[in-house]
């Protein structure tokens, strides 16, 4: 299985425990009224199976710059009949630390059938699914999908958020350069042409408005010109007053 290592934190990254200033952050639903928030880490439907440390309210935050660019994405997909649905955005370092503790507890496999049935629990660190630092903590990264207003359901992307496996790669069953689908029966399942096309709709809209994708997760994007590339924040996720 291909590993998905996170980008290492810069050596001069600011100490996260001391970076508690949220003055340059906004609540996404206030910046983009049409957005749908499903805060996965505030609830229990996530790979941990519990509310994650630092998520005090079922909301989502981003830097102002990232939220402005995301508003442009929202306007584009809305004209196509879709709305943005956010699973996660800014993630405090305390949440990442929670992931690390969970990853070290080999006895906790409650959510394995839903998120990592084909991955050896002991290899989650080695394969890069869990790491000490996350780009989410810099405030300009988010996980999202598209909601189809015609059907009243999420657009079928052929896989769930936070699925640990090659099936989550944007180029699974397709060529992202040509946007052409192809069969791949070497994995546990394969995408339909429609599912691959749906992933490309999201990808194109995000790239069009200044976000860069992640090679291992179709739902994960980071603002190219993120304002805090060397800073990992640690204030909790809650309404900014």
Characterise the protein shown here:
The protein has 241 residues and is α+β, with helices and mostly antiparallel strands. The chain has helices at residues 28-31, 64-78, 93-104, 112-115, 193-208; strands at 25-27, 36-37, 61-63, 82-88, 141-148, 153-154, 174-175, 180-181, 211-214, 217-223. It is built from 5 helices and 10 strands; from the N terminus they run βαββαβααββββαββ. Helix 2 (64-78) crosses helix 5. The termini are far apart.
Whole-angstrom Rg: 17 Å
C-alpha geometry: globular
**CATH domain class:** Alpha Beta
The secondary-structure class comes to: alpha+beta
> What separation lies between the terminal Cα atoms?
44 Å
Number of distinct helices: 5
Task: Briefly note the CATH topology name.
Answer: Muramoyl-pentapeptide Carboxypeptidase, domain 2
In the predicted model, the low-confidence regions spanning at least 5 consecutive residues are none
Which helices and strands, and how do they pair?
Blueprint: E1 25-27, H1 28-31, E2 36-37, E3 61-63, H2 64-78, E4 82-88, H3 93-104, H4 112-115, E5 141-148, E6 153-154, E7 174-175, E8 180-181, H5 193-208, E9 211-214, E10 217-223
Give a quick rundown of the structure.
Helix content is 21%, strand content 17%.
Keywords:
241 residues, alpha+beta, Muramoyl-pentapeptide Carboxypeptidase, domain 2, 6-stranded mixed sheet, two-stranded antiparallel sheet, 5 helices, 21% helix, globular
């Amino acid at each position: 299985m291909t590993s998905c290592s996170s980008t290492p934190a810069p050596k001069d990254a600011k100490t996260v425990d001391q970076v508690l200033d949220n003055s340059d952050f906004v609540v996404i639903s206030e910046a983009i009224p049409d957005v749908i928030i499903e805060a996965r880490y505030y609830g229990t439907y996530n790979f941990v199976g519990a509310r994650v440390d630092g998520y005090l309210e079922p909301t989502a935050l981003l830097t102002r710059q990232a939220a402005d660019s995301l508003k442009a994405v929202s306007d584009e997909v809305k004209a196509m009949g879709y709305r943005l649905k956010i699973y996660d955005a800014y993630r405090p370092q305390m949440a990442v630390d929670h992931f690390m503790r969970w990853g070290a507890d080999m006895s906790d496999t409650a959510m394995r059938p839903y998120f990592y049935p084909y991955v050896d629990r002991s290899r989650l660190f080695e394969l890069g699914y869990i790491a000490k630092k996350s780009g989410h903590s810099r405030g300009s990264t988010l996980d999202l999908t598209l909601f189809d207003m015609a059907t009243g359901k999420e657009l079928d992307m052929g896989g769930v958020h936070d699925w640990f496996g090659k099936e989550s790669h944007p180029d699974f069953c397709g060529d992202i350069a040509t946007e052409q689908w192809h069969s791949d029966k070497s994995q546990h399942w394969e995408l339909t042409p429609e599912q691959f096309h749906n992933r490309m709709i999201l990808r194109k809209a995000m790239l069009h408005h200044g976000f860069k994708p992640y090679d291992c997760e179709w739902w994960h994007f980071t603002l190219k010109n993120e304002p805090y590339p060397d800073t990992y924040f640690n204030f909790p996720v809650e309404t900014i007053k």
